[in-house]
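User:
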Amino acid sequence: MDIKIAENAHELGKSAGAAAAKAIREAIASKGNANIILATGTSQFETLKQLISEDIDWSKVVMFHLDEYIDLLVTHPASFRKYLQEKFISKVPPLKASYLINGEVNPQAECDRLGKAIASHPIDVALVGIGENGHLAFNDPPADFDTEKPYIIVELDKACRQQQLGEGWFKSLEEVPPQAISMSVKQILKSKIIICSVPDSRKATAVKNTVEQNVSNLYPASILQQHGDCRLYLDKSSAALLSKNASPLV
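Assistant: Predicted structure:
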């Protein structure tokens, strides 16, 4: 795991977005296309902002996304489909293809549809974050490290739902859906390169557990330690509790 620490969330996002863009361009140059995964949430604001400013031939890019609530209307402010459509898809030239998770249809059928699609699109670059409870996508602790299914139906724990409320996506805890469709841990780890953007002091404990705990499904993001090319982008606030050395961003 390659750890980089920026001064603030803005600089973190610029560096993470630029690194992701470079990897996407390299994939296109080597094989004519790139398959990517995009995350959502407040942790991705600056990274996506940088990514869409980069010079990339988007007509050669296929996009998948990580997770979506079950039974949440696409018009709801917390919808991740809405987020990606507004903050990414509408701001770049047409993609080769995009596979958004529809949480308003039969969840198992949607998992099957997406699983078949991603099986024929090996992922070159995955942009992910880490939750306050250490989750990776919506794989809350104790996460399923064993399933081979690319997309799964998950129960959201209280800490995860509380984070979504705290970030302002919902008006009450009761409004946060209890279930979601999530990309599985094993599927995320199949990505050639993982760019993990984690700003903010509220993520500091999760970052420390990710980096310094033994790999455990009680700290889902700790599994990133086992990936061959995971690049963890932090700011000073999210890195504040780390005891190990990390490379400051220049």
